[in-house]
Design goal:
single chain, about 350 residues
């Protein structure tokens, strides 16, 4: 029986590693929600943390499903990805859209998008100011904008107009249920919002310094590659592990910080990325952006990150390659925004 289950996984070890991650994300999501309704405040606080991290792990598992690293069957990966999409809130878009946009990111070696938020911000300066104020208050407003657009993407993206009925049903179910909770258990609803913000922060923290390019509106347009596609992919990809020394700490984000290893070989499952990085990318700690610099950049530059301007290092925000790595290690990058694989547009 166990052997048969093992064969269903991309690798035999996947039964243990992927299985544990899926169990944690699903159980943590369920227990987190239960904890939000508990009368004790300390249980509520613990529930928020568990729920936020469970959704974060679920998000990285969606990424694994997109690369078919969990099961041998593409259909099984897609089915799990769709299920986890309901946990992460990415279910407003189809799993196929999520996977397609992310594959384009790898193949084109670019941040392939439909929605250019920089152009949008140019038209609405007051909105930008509001987002900056909220970001200053540690509310990931820029991410809320992107996730909000994702909720109605079928109604604003012409190429997805055929999904409008499906998306309307998802909106009715999720928003309707949230409103019920908001009315009858407002503290639980608040706890969920905080947990969701924790997930947003975690995903954006890891994404922020992993590439040296900005958005490119080529998701549905046949535009030429800006950087030569796969041939130059590694030159524009950087790693930011939570810890170089302690492997287990990186499991908090399913090793997503070993990003260069993932781009060298996207089919390597999360639990082997660190070893793959050391063997095939570099064994030099100087090849990554250390956690201390990441932490400094993420919080110190949170307002500048919205428009990539207004801070002390505006003149180096468009450097690439080794200069980008040096700026990151020196804590001088503002970081990317709104580049999550959960918002595929």
């Amino acid at each position: 029986m166990t052997l048969g289950i093992t064969k269903a996984f991309h690798e035999p070890a996947g039964l243990l590693y992927h299985g544990a991650a899926v169990l944690y994300s699903v159980a943590g999501y369920a227990l987190g929600w239960l904890g939000l309704f508990h009368p004790a405040w300390w249980v509520n606080v613990l529930a928020v943390l568990v729920l936020g991290h469970a959704m974060t792990i679920a998000a990285y598992l969606v990424h694994e499903c997109g690369h078919n690293t969990i099961f041998r069957s593409n259909r099984a990966n897609a089915a799990l990805g769709r299920l986890l999409g309901w946990i992460t809130g990415s279910c407003y878009s189809t799993f196929e859209d999520t996977r397609y946009a992310h594959f384009r990111h790898h193949v084109d070696n670019d941040d392939v998008v439909w929605f250019m938020y920089s152009d949008f911000f140019d038209r609405y300066p007051r909105l930008v100011r509001l987002i900056e104020v909220l970001e200053w208050a540690f509310i990931p407003a820029h991410e809320f904008l992107m996730h909000g657009l994702g909720m109605i993407s079928a109604f604003v993206i012409p190429q997805r107009s055929g999904q409008r009925i499906r998306q309307a049903v998802v909106i009715a179910l999720r928003v309707g249920l949230f409103l019920l909770i908001l009315v009858f258990a407002p503290l639980a609803a608040l706890g969920y919002v905080i947990a969701y913000m924790l997930m947003m922060h975690a995903l954006r923290f890891m994404d922020a310094q992993q590439h040296d390019y900005d958005s490119y509106p080529s998701l549905y347009d046949d535009l030429p590659s800006r950087f030569g596609g796969r041939e130059t992919e590694l030159a524009h990809t950087f790693s930011n592990p939570l810890s170089w020394k302690h492997e287990w700490i990186n499991w908090l984000t399913l090793n997503f910080g070993w990003h260069s290893a993932h781009h060298v070989r996207p089919t390597v499952p999360w639990y082997r990325l660190r070893d793959y990085y050391l063997e095939n990318v570099s064994d030099d700690p100087g090849s990554v952006i250390p956690f201390r610099a990441q932490w400094h950049m993420y919080w110190r530059h949170r307002v500048y990150r919205v428009t990539h301007s207004g801070g002390p290092y505006d003149d180096i925000q468009h450097v690439t390659g080794e200069a980008f790595l040096a700026a990151g290690r020196g804590g001088k990058l503002y970081g990317g925004n709104a580049a999550s694989f959960l918002t595929p547009f």
